[in-house]
Write a structure and sequence with these properties.
This protein has 201 residues and is α+β, with helices and mostly antiparallel strands. It folds into two domains: 2-75, no CATH class; 86-174, no CATH class. The chain contains six helices and four strands; from the N terminus they run βαβββααααα. The chain has helices at 11-17, 86-98, 103-109, 117-138, 150-161, 163-174; strands at residues 2-5, 38-50, 53-64, 70-75. Strands 1-4-3-2 form a four-stranded mixed sheet, sandwiched between helices. Helix 2 packs antiparallel against helix 3 and helix 2 crosses helix 4. The longest helix has 22 residues, at 117-138. The radius of gyration is 18 Å and the shape is globular. The chain binds zinc ion.
């Protein structure tokens, strides 16, 4: 299960904080809810592209001594299952959908001038599908300003709250993915149990 590492600094600060395994250790297992069963259990690496960063980062993992399942702490500037960090995606979506720039100009605004246009279209498509749900979920955090459509309203609300604070709330409180969970996962980010899936037609 993924939880958020409460790092509010840079990637470099995040990496430094990883050397202190107990500093952000959750005091309960989020899966079996037992108190104090989590122990540091190494790291896994994931790739990350952020503004002025293209590399890989380590993600801290804990093992629950009771239920034997693992919990990982993702830094809050990344989204599960996406290589690009929230600031890059946010800059692109605002430029493309709010400022109505071309795909190329939006990629330049996101500091990714040479990225394939299909990547931007993929983010746009997922955000469009998620916009109405985002408006409803974020209504408790900021005033709802009338807008011509849910897409514009969601972007305005994210601008008012901040993309990363909004993600922090959506993920931690609602288990909601800013761009919607990928299709192979259940709505709350759990893996689909293949044996329970109905036969496809
Ligand atoms: Zn547990």
């Amino acid at each position: 299960m993924q939880m958020l590492h409460p790092c509010r600094g840079s990637i470099q600060q995040y990496e430094q904080e990883l050397s202190e395994p107990d500093r952000y250790r959750p005091d309960r297992c989020p899966l079996c809810h037992a108190p104090d069963p989590l122990r540091a259990h190494g790291f896994y690496c994931r790739t990350l592209v952020d503004v002025q960063y293209d590399g890989s980062i380590r993600v801290r993992r804990y093992l629950c001594l009771l239920c034997r399942r693992t919990v990982s702490l993702l830094p809050e500037f990344v989204l599960p299952y996406l290589r690009f960090a929230i600031p890059v995606i946010g800059l692109f979506l605002v430029a493309r959908l709010l400022d109505r720039r071309t795909l190329r100009a939006a990629a330049e605004a996101a500091f990714e001038p040479s990225m394939p246009y299909q990547r931007g279209q993929f983010w746009v498509r997922r955000f469009q599908q998620q916009a109405m749900a985002l408006c409803a979920a974020l209504a408790g955090l900021t005033a709802v300003v009338p807008a011509r459509d849910f897409l514009t309203q969601a972007l305005q609300m994210l601008a008012a709250i901040g993309w990363i604070p909004a993600h922090r709330f959506l993920f931690a409180a609602l288990r909601m993915h800013l761009l919607g969970w990928p299709g192979f996962l259940l709505p709350h980010g759990s893996r689909v149990n293949l044996s329970l899936r109905p036969a496809s037609c």
